[in-house]
Design goal:
Its EC number is 3.6.1.-. By secondary structure, this protein is α/β, with parallel strands linked by helices. The chain has ten helices and 13 strands.
Length: 350
């Protein structure tokens, strides 16, 4: 038997279930997504579930169940079920689907904390951390930066300087799986029932960190490729694991690209310290590029705001604008198509 409260089940989710027409059926949480089925943690056991036809054919790909979703299912046979409903999502981490302008891909839902995992080697990138932060904070998820492989040689002063604006926003931990004392502070921030998703590029040590936090081998790991100097992909899917007497950890495959699926300018301004200056701009709708009386540009010129941070802000703001504009156009097209379909149905009924 599984105690679902350990997996995050609470009164709020119970109330959401009461709004479903299938509230009399059993519920569980999606632990992993396979090509043709879903692994679900239920009170009775771990089940393999398939989708009911109305979900399979009636929802877009990003609306289908993802790791972390709470679902309602109809059991059949031994340890099998049919998913008939998905509870409304909260705190869902998305990214823009590769090769698209406005399509979103779900990474995990009902997430409390996101560990942005970066390694202190050639893979380290402040710009990548900023990108993750924007998307995570968009969904009111708590981001925490975990720097792994601190046993390697690295320039502490250079790292600290590059992360100053990030350190003012979120906690930062330096860790090494070779030094258990560096893992303990990370373990302490995870409380029972909380869901923590791990994001980062391949080879930064997400799976190794999860194994260290759980104090047992949960996921397989591999060494850095000698030919490319990059990490090999060990995680091939998003998968959930329960820590003993603690929270829920969700491992994710490494990503080379993390496209923004966000249009929240306030989050961007906060992360990049622009919010500290933009209230003093001459114009309320200042774009912080060439407008006269721009306090942000003045801060850059005076060295109060680093030029690299400012340029990263402009780049991500532009990407966010493209996403929101493309998504708006897509919604307009969908509404137009829906109107045409309704009109066609009315004509057919005449």
């Amino acid at each position: 038997m599984n105690n679902l409260s350990l997996y995050g089940w609470n009164d709020s989710l119970f109330q959401l279930k009461q709004t479903s027409q299938y509230k009399h059926l059993l519920h569980g949480r999606v632990a992993a997504v396979n090509k043709t089925n879903y692994e679900v943690i239920a009170e009775s056991d771990r089940l393999l579930c398939e989708l009911a036809g109305n979900l399979l054919y009636g929802k877009s790909s990003f609306e289908l169940p993802c790791t972390g979703d709470w679902i309602i299912y109809q059991p059949f046979d031994d340890n099998k079920g049919i998913i008939v409903d998905i509870l409304p999502r909260k705190h869902t981490l998305y990214r823009r689907k590769s090769g698209t302008l406005s399509e979103r891909q779900t990474i995990a839902s009902h997430v409390d904390i996101a560990f942005i995992v970066q390694s202190l080697d050639a893979n380290f990138s402040v710009r990548r951390t900023e990108r993750f932060m924007v998307q995570i904070m968009e969904e009111n998820i708590q981001p925490i930066l975990i720097l792994t492989k601190s046993d390697l040689e690295f320039n502490q002063h250079q790292i600290d300087e590059s992360l100053k604006h990030i350190g003012r926003q979120i906690p930062i931990f330096f860790t090494s799986i070779l030094s258990p004392e560096t893992i303990l502070p990370v373990r302490k921030v995870i409380r029972q029932g909380q869901s923590v998703v791990f994001v980062g590029s391949s080879g930064v040590g997400k799976s190794s960190l999860i194994n260290a936090l759980c104090q047992r081998k949960v996921f397989s790991t591999s060494d850095i490729s000698k030919s490319s100097g990059k990490g090999r992909h060990t995680s091939t899917r998003r998968e959930m694991v329960l820590m003993d007497q603690s929270g829920i950890l969700i491992d994710t495959p490494g990503v080379r690209e993390f496209g923004l699926a966000s249009d929240n300018g306030e989050v961007l301004a906060d992360i990049f310290d622009v919010a500290d200056f933009d209230q003093s701009c001459r114009f309320e709708n200042c774009k912080h590029i060439e407008e006269p009386g721009c306090a942000v540009k003045e801060a850059v010129n005076n060295g109060l705001l680093e030029a690299e941070v400012y340029n990263s802000y402009l780049k991500l703001r532009k990407e966010s604008w493209y996403f929101s504009t493309s998504e708006h156009e897509k919604r307009k097209r969908d509404k137009s198509f829906a109107k045409i379909s309704e009109e066609a149905k009315r004509i057919k009924r005449r």
